[in-house]
Amino acid sequence: MKSEFAYGEAQRHLKQRNRFAALAGVLGLTTVLAVGAAATRDETLILMPITSQKVELSSGAIDAPYLELVTRDTALMLLNRAPESLEYWMESVLKLADPSARGQLKAELIKIVDEQRGSDISQAFVIAQIHVDPDALTSTVSGTLKTFVGAQVIASQTRSFEFIWQRRGLSLGLTGFRQLPAQEEESQ
C-alpha cells in the first residue's frame, strides 16, 4: 500500500514538474521573441506641439525638420542674451549640451558671462535662414546679430553660426558651436 501511495505521489509530482517545464519553455520563447522584436524595431517618438507639422524622432536617423527646429530654438536661446539673465541663459544652454562636451561648452559660456556681467550690453539675433545636414549632424544659422547698449543699437551685422550635434539613442546633444568667418557666410 505504501509503495502504491508513493508511486501515485511520484506521478503527481512528475506531471506537475512537466507542466512547469512546459510553462517555462513558453515563457522563454515569448521572452526571446519580445527581445528580438525590440532589438530590430526602430523606436519612434512623436514630438508635439512645437510646430504645426508632424515631426518624428526615430532610432534610425535624425529627421531634417526636427534638426531644423532644434537648431532654431538653440540659436535663438544661445544668441539672444542680456546681462540680467546670464545665469539662466548659461544653464539653459548647458541643458542642451551632450555630456561629452559639457565641460568645454561650460568653459566657453563662463568666458561670455564674465565679459558681459555688470555691463549694459545685450544682443539679439534675427534668423534669416537655416541649413541642416542630418547625416553629419551639423546645422548653420544665418541672420542679423544686433548688439545693444541699453536700448541703443550699436551694431547690426550679418553673421552665420555653425552648430555641431551628437546623437545618443533618441536624444540630441550640442557638442559645439562657432561663428563662421565672413567668407563661409558668403558662400552659403
Structural class: alpha+beta
What do we call the CATH topology of one domain? Nuclear Transport Factor 2, Chain: A
Distance between the termini: 97 Å
Give the overall silhouette: elongated
Walkthrough of the structure:
It is built from five helices and six strands, in the order αββαααββββα. It has 188 residues and is α+β, with helices and mostly antiparallel strands. It has a domain at 60-187: VirB8 protein (Nuclear Transport Factor 2, Chain: A), CATH 3.10.450. A hairpin with a 4-residue loop joins strand 3 and strand 4. The longest helix is centred in the first third of the chain and has 39 residues, at 2-40. The radius of gyration is 29 Å and the shape is elongated.
Provide the descriptors you would attach to this structure in a database record:
single chain; 188 residues; alpha+beta; Nuclear Transport Factor 2, Chain: A; four-stranded antiparallel β-sheet; two-stranded antiparallel sheet; elongated; disordered C terminus
